[in-house]
Design brief:
Layout lengths: L4 E2 L9 E6 L7 H6 L7 E6 L16 H16 L3 E7 L1 H17 L5 E5 L20 H11 L4 H4 L2 H19 L14 E7 L18 E6 L9 H22 L1
Parallel strand pairs: 2-3, 2-4, 4-5, 5-6, 6-7
Antiparallel strand pairs: 1-3
Length: 254
């Protein structure tokens, strides 16, 4: 359990756990620190996937099913303790959605709310038109990384550091680019679903996410590019919106 979860700010009295899924190549530190922005009603669990940080000696997952299998197996006891919600950015949007669907289908449980960010819906046709970044050379991949704003310049200009960053990024890109979801006749989820995105990011098919739940659906656009969420002002807005939806969902849940 501890190998999967990074929780820097324990909140034993929290009514809800917000479980955060990393972006492609990402670790657990960002969301673990993000937890300080929430009040004590929310406890943040940041997921640490195989092949990075303290799990650097473990092999990278090859498929989305492998990721979902581990998360559901290790998290299930915690998910039974109290209500929970999922937040995922980019690659994390797909991983959080796939995990939510697995929980619904296999255990008849689902998050209070699903928050997705910086990604088209998994069944959207727009995904097939996107260049497969996992096929890029290291040089071109680094150029792409420099445009997204998520990697510090000191890392982009340090080849030793890049050799640690590129493998998990490539592995995650390969997983998400081979993740295919065929939308069923009926929405697979009933929870609320909120999309966040940057106004200057490449356009994403956000409206298609509405097909995947019978619950409430919302979209919030915030200023910035793909990593708009790292801007301190946007962080505060994300926490404000997310907290509001969790509070509303909790009231309905009770």
């Amino acid at each position: 359990m501890d190998k999967l979860i990074n929780c820097l700010y324990r909140q034993p009295s929290a009514t809800t756990r917000l479980i955060c899924f990393p972006w492609a190549g990402g670790g657990s530190i960002y969301y673990a620190q993000w937890a300080r922005l929430f009040d004590d009603s929310v406890e943040v669990y940041s997921l640490r996937l195989p092949g990075r940080e303290s799990r650097s000696q473990e092999p990278f997952p090859q498929t989305m099913d492998q990721i979902v299998d581990e998360i559901t197996h290790l998290l299930l006891p915690k998910l039974c303790e109290k209500s929970f919600a999922f937040f995922g950015h980019s690659f994390g949007s797909f991983a959080s959605f796939a995990t939510a669907v697995r929980l619904k289908e296999k255990y008849n449980m689902e998050p209070l709310h699903l928050f997705v960010s910086g990604a088209s819906a998994p069944h959207s046709r727009s995904r097939s038109k996107t260049l497969k970044k996992s096929d890029l050379t290291d040089e071109d991949l680094i150029k792409w990384m420099s445009t997204t704003g998520g990697t510090p310049k000191e890392i982009l200009h340090n080849m030793d550091a890049l050799q640690m960053v590129l493998p998990p990024l490539k592995a995650d890109l390969n997983v998400v680019e081979n993740f295919i979801y065929d939308k069923p006749a009926n929405p697979p989820l009933t929870c609320g679903l909120t999309c966040y995105d940057g106004t200057e990011d490449s356009p994403h098919d956000l409206e298609a996410w509405k097909d995947l739940t019978s619950g409430e659906f919302n979209i919030h656009m915030l200023p910035g590019g793909h990593f708009y969420l790292k801007d301190p002002a946007n962080e505060k807005l994300l926490v404000k919106y997310t907290s509001k939806y969790l509070e509303t969902a909790e009231i309905s849940y009770l």
